[in-house]
Every structure is written in C-alpha cells, then in structure tokens.
Amino acid sequence: MADAPRGAPDGELVRRFLAGDAGAATELITRHERRVYAVCLRVLGNPDDAADAAQDAFLAMIRKLDGFRGEAAFTTWLYRVAMNVCYDHLRRAKRRPVLRRDDDAPAPEPALDDHADAVAGAHDVAAALEQVPEDFRVAIVLADVHDLPYDEIAKVLDLPVGTVKSRVHRGRIALAKALGIGAPSEPADRSATSKETRP
Amino acid sequence: MSHPGPLLADYVDGTLDPSTRAEVDAHMRTCATCRGELAMATAGARAAQGLDEPAAPAGIGEAAIAEAARMAAERNPEVTPMTGRARRRPTTPRVLAAAGAAALILLLVVVAPKLGQDTTQNAAQIAAGGASRAAAYPQASYVEIQHADYTFAVLPDVAAQLRSAITSSDGLENGSVASSALGVGAPSAAAVPNAEDVSKDSALLPTATACLNKAFDNPTGTLSRVIRARYGGQPAYLGVYLIGPGSELPPNLLQLSVASVHGCEVLGQSTARL
Description:
In chain A, 64% of the residues lie in helices and 0% in strands. Chain A has helices at residues 10-18, 22-44, 47-64, 74-95, 122-129, 134-145, 150-157, 161-178, 189-197. Chain B has ten helices and six strands. The longest helix of chain B is centred in the middle third of the chain and has 32 residues, at 97-128. Classes of the chains: A mainly alpha (199), B alpha+beta (274). At the A-B interface, helix 2, helix 3, helix 5, helix 6 and helix 8 of A face helix 1, helix 3 and helix 4 of B.
C-alpha cells in the first residue's frame, strides 16, 4: 500500500484511513499532535494530564473517524473531540479525593495592579490561566491561544456564538485579574467625564 | 447604548464594524465600568495570545496509531497490522493497590517465564561455546504492552521474582511459584485481568529502547525485556537488563529500570543479584 502523502488534505487522509490505510491515520495524528497536546495542556494545566488527554483524544479520534462527515473542517471536529476528552478529565479530577493542584486552600488573590500593560511571563500566564473558571478558560484558549474564529468555537463547543463571545470576554477579564491586572483607577463616572474634558 | 457586554470581545479583536464601534466608543466615554472592563479584557487577551504552543511529548499518538493499524487491518485483511492488539489505557490514572498486585501477577506469569526460557536457551548456547556477548544474553525483540499499573512499592519484588524465574527452573515453568512467594495466591484466569489482552509490538521497540537509553544515560547490560504499561499512573516503559562480568560468563545482575513514555524521565529502578 502506498504511503499516505504528507501534503494530502485532512479529508483525504480520513477517506484513505476508512478505506484501510493505517498510514493515513498516522499522518493525521502526526500532523495534529502538537495542536491537540497544546490545547489539552492549556485547558488542563498539567503536562501529564495533557499527555494523557491527548492520547485519549487521538484514540477517540481514530474510533470516531467513520462518523466524520466533512460538514465541518477536520480541525473543528478534532477540537471538539479533544474538548470532550478534556471535559471528561476535568470531571474526573473533581471527583478525585485529593487534588494535586486545586488544594482546599484557595489560591492567594494577586495584588491588583493598575497598569494593564503589566508584563507577565508565559509561565505566569499559564499559571494564571488555571485560575480562570473552566468554561471561560476553554473559550479563551480556543480564541486567543489557538486563534479560532468565534463561529468555529461555537461549533466546537456546540454553543451559540453570543455565548462564546460572552465567555471569551469574561475569560479575558478573569485572566487579567488572575495576573493581578486591575481596571485603571479613575473617579466615579461623573467626575471622570469632567476630567476627560479638561485639556 | 446600554453596556456593550460581549461586543467588547469583538471590540478587543478589532472586528467591530465602524458604526457599531462608534456606538461603543460613545458609550465608553460615559461609562467607567466598561472602560475598566475593556482595559482588563485587552490585557487578558494580550496575555493569552502570548502563550506558545508547546511541542507534544514523544509517543502521545502511539496508542492511537496502534489502534488505527488494528482497525485498518480489519477493514483491509491483506494488510498486516503493526500490532496484534491495541487497547485503551486504564481510565483511572492513579495507583490502586489492587491494580498493582494484579499487574505484578501479570508480569510474573507473562514475562518471567519467557525471560527464564530465553536465559535457559542462552545457557545452552554458552555451554555449546562460541556465543558472542550479543548472542549470549537474550535481547528484547518486541515490547510487551500490558494493561497494568505498577507501583514503586512492588518494584523490588518484581525484580526479585524475575531473578527467581531465572535462577529457579521451577519458576520458569510455573507462575504460581513466583506469585505464592508474594503471598498473593496462585494466579488464575480470574486473578489475571486482561492477561489475554497482552500484545507484542516489535515496531515500538526502537522507541522504547531509545527512551530507556535517554532516561538512564545508555545503561550497561543487555536489554532483555521491555514492557509498556503504567507506573504510578503514568505511561511507562519497564526495561529488564541483564548485566554480567564478561562475554563468556552468564549474567549476575538483573536491573529493572522504569522510564516515563512522555519525556523519557527516570521513574524507578530496582536491582536483583542473580
């Protein structure tokens, strides 16, 4: 059997796998493993959990490929499979008697900083992301880390686009708070208006 | 205009049409709450957009590739699958004592007898003379994939029982000798879950060997068995090394080394003198 061509579109690889070409599945997995691992890592926050989830996602992908109808882009469909697996992992983590990360003691509230331009390293951002409620976190991971359009995120999460936008907006604010970034200080509305009109 | 709420997501992205953006701007001039939200949402978006996409650890697609090979072989019987069977890993990622005990029995029943057999064959080769070191110690030719979870606590026992399997001819023939020594009773079909599910994957051997070499910095000895299972809840390779004093002499040390599949880091090690 011929090797699956590296440049073949995802849909073609799916078709070839369903026709009995295992190499096509290998190419699909190789092509998307970084994307799937990355989204799992940002949603779950832990490399080991992310690796487990990514493995489960690829197994689920392989087993469900005959259900891929090509109505959505393959990546959209794959994100949906991966997100379902991540939500399963999050649910299981909540049921664990001892959580490794979400200890009983709440994370300390960061001191709010008036400067929206405060610099945060990638490590700080990743840690702060874990403090964002999971529905909001998933939304901003897909929108801002993976740069998916809102209508595609809506398909991934099976939500109305308006709900996605709302979650993204609230997630961004929650992330800023977790990073210790607060709203700029200013007087109440009325005085603020007068202040702005001054030269 | 009332508070724009979710429209601020589009505003931050710069995707609002000009007229709507003008309306939002007009609202902003009079609403400190929305100005604050906008500043924070902008900062949050900027921070999230700065996150990179880390490389995936080696081997995360391995189980799915094996499953794909199995499924493809079913669809197209003319194609030889990469592995005999593929299975899902345990869904409970944490260590369970019962699972550890069952896994230990599995190792002893499935692995130890084979290790012993090979060693017996090797001894015959040595007795016949002319065997090189490479041929003298049995070398792994495939990875055994086990649906099992090992623990640090059982590692010395596993190494000791592997030693017993090599040095005791009874142990080679009968797994019950090894398991009774652990006080877990004689194995039965019911006591060895998934025993029928153990498969061999020769294609995985180079990856597993490289991972063990990386974790343990090219360890000495001959890699005689390789097992792909879980250790402390995470995917792991268990390498059984035979170490001897020289090419013409039988091994006198058995080393059981465990490395993580993801990242190839040292997870555990136990040694037994033969």
